[in-house]
Amino acid sequence: MVLQFGGMSSLCKARITAQSPCRFATSAFLKNSRPTGGSGSTLEAVAEPPQDLNTTPQPATAKPSEALPPGNPPHVGGGAEGEGPTEQARMYISLGLIGVLGLVITAGILLLVYQRDQERRRMEFSKLADDRTQAVQLVANGCVEALNAMADLYASSERVDPEEFRHFATRSMQRHPETVYLAWLPRVSHAQRQAIERLPARINRGFRIQQLDTNGHLVTAETRAEYFPVFYIEPFWENRMLRGLDHYQEAPRRTAMDLARDTATTVATPWIRLAQRETETAADFGVFLYQAVYTNRLPAETTEQRRKNLAGFLTAVVTVEGLVRRALPAGALKNVEVFLADESSEDGTPLVIHFTPTGWNIQQQSLEDLKRLRRGNIVWEGAVDLAGRPWTVLCYPTRQFMASYRSYSLWGILVAGLLFTGFLVNYQRVIMQRTSYVEKLVTQRTRELKEEIASRARLEEELQRERDLFHTLLDNLPDRIYFKDTQSRFLRINRALANLFGLKHPREAVGKSDFDFFTLEHARPAFEDEQEIIRTGQPLIGRVELETLPDGKQCWAHTTKMPFRDKNGRIIGTFGISRDITSLREMTEQLKKANADLQRSHEELKAAQMQLIQAEKMQSVGRLAAGVAHEVKNPLAILGMGLDYLASSVDMNDPTIRGVVEDMRQSIRRADNIILGLLDFSKPRDLELKPVNLNEIIQQALALTKHEQVGALVHVQTHLAPDLPLIRGDAHKLSQVFVNLFLNACQAMENGGTLTVRTHVRELNAEEVRLETGSREALRFHAGQPVLEALVDDTGPGIPPDKLSRIFEPFFTTKPTGQGTGLGLTVSRQIMEWHGGRMQVFNRPEGGARAQIWFPIENQENLSPTAPAAEETPSATDSP
Q1: Considering only CA atoms, which of 476, 493, 484 is closest in space to residue 575?
Q2: What digits encode the pLDDT tens for the residues 29-45?
Q3: Domains plus CATH for the chain?
Q4: What are the phi and psi torsion angles at 221 (to 5°)?
Q5: What contacts 422, CB < 8 A, 6 or more positions away?
Q6: What global pTM score does this model have?
Q7: Residue 259, Cβ neighbours under 10 Å: how many?
Q8: How far apart are CA 648 and CA 452, in angstroms?
Q9: Which of 34, 85, 124, 600 is found 20 to 30 A from 8 (Cα to Cα)?
Q10: SS3 of 416, please?
Q11: pLDDT of 210-220, one tens digit each?
Q12: Beta carbons of 853 and 837 less than 8 angstroms apart
């Protein structure tokens, strides 16, 4: 302990000298210090002159600049090390007691002031609520007094006529506008009913005693012993529909009327709903006040006498809303919310109406529920008596009332108490903490120094581990990684890139560039890319490029380059990673080729399958057609011979007979043509294949159809390529194909036109040979294959688009009935498929139809390398 204070003496001296407010606490600490050994005392240590802390070896002490941080006053303390926790606990207990004491005193003062304010506010509100309740009571008493005045009128008069009743009632309602109407209800026995209904009829037609049905409609009253109908009512015009209404019908009013009769006092009903609406309001509820009137000059002292001598009732209807609004205008409800409840309803459920400065509403909860919900608020509870029926009144203060009585003294007391308590606690804390600051400072700095040394050791270890991981990654990663400066010179490369460059160690590449390892064609674009990255900061990601080394070795690489930034975000170079994808690219190309071969095989297999299905269909149709043709051809020949015999036996000079005979012969010929077509369609595939010249077959077909060309005024143009390669085919069958096409073209051009025939050799493209889904045609061609192509074009109207897909169906034709069998194109396409070729028909964009025919070329040596010269062969049937 002596050594500790000896080492800290200059520190304490300097601190006490620099901050005079701390001198008292430090001196107190030094006086109470108890050295455990050695020479010298703490007082002597203080008396020593200041020493330079840097000259005194303090292995466990921080730097002098950090020994006393600004803003932290020194805490001087002493005692043995074992007394540290006791002093600290004593300090916390003392501070806690002072704080608790201050808070308790503040809370007590707050409670006293709050109770005084609450009591004053409660007294003010009670007076305000009592005034409002008394106002309502005065208005209620006025309504009863008005009804009593009407009773006095009846008691002082032998008979009250309508004018007298109207005059007296009008004046009374002017004084009490909360009254809806006043009415006289005479007592009418069943024997008097007809007389009383006839008597007013001379004055006001339509009077009858009525009652309310279950739907609230007025209907003729049922037969009862006695009635109390409305006889006089004011105001009359607004309430004329109520004349004759028997009040004695309904139970609530009947109970009140019986009580008024027996007690000779004014009696009020419970709240009754006066109007039927979807949404209830306070204006819909009111009370009926009943005052019994007895026959003059007859005794009414006992209950029996009153029941016997009853003459009728005076009634006044008062709405709850009107009564309260009369007593409490909008200004009176500014500071008070009034809840008015009638707890004497027939079903025992109280009805509560809430009155506020802005309006009123019906509450769907009882008073007990309301009190529970507003528990803790100021409440005043009272009652209003209306003709012996009490109404419960609950009054609550509004926000305006609470705001007007808001006191800010509580906040002032709270703030002052907290500030004073905080000052005391802080003052005590400063005094007590100064006693322990000095002795804890050395221990704290020593511990921090040890922690810093341990932390630095851990950081060095982690940093070394990170370096090892980084070097391991660079040296073993197969991808090529590099770092470059702003001049695109290598700063660091990994071993994979060094192996590519043929270097023994990656350090050999430092300071060099791509120009030292790659050809100029590759190094120049790479340098420009890196300079662009340095200039813009935009990375280059996922570029595939071909790298060429000076020895001529080439490889494909997938390269990503990024800007290299320092800790301040400034670009100081580039770095990147490059992956050799040469083998991957070769595998991709092989995979693409294999996929293409697989797709082509799949398409060929699918086409062959479709061809087989179509062949089976055609074979079935062919057998059917052959049977039909065989059965029909013999009878048709007999008909022809019979027609020739008949023609030789009649007078052929007669035009009528000659016309009939010619029509029959044409019909027989047409039937014969159909049979020939069926036979062609049904013939088995017996071809006489031999090398043939397609141009010669076309010329023969044109010669066979020359008659039709002349008759249809068709001009023929031929562009036949010379030296066409020979194809293997049946000349007769192929001639039949072109004859069918030429005849169809001539028939399509009814008003003349041009028939153009072309032949040439060309290579197919991928779009032409693509096999669409659902195609019936077997695919025998592929992209790049040379074919011999024949095109037959006409200038007719073309084929309707909706029928274009059906032209190869058997027996389908676009010609009128009697002008075709519908088998020509079907047979022609079948012949082309037998020859391994392809035929399709489509409309040309410029108008007309085109038939396209492909023949495979078996021997490539027969192809002519030069473009075919166009040879135009004018037809002998050119139109003039």
Answers
A1: 484
A2: 334 434 334 434 333 33
A3: 132-399 (3.30.450.350), 477-580 (3.30.450.20), 585-684 (no CATH), 686-862 (3.30.565.10)
A4: -65, 145
A5: none
A6: 0.39
A7: 17
A8: 138
A9: 85
A10: helix
A11: 888 888 788 88
A12: yes
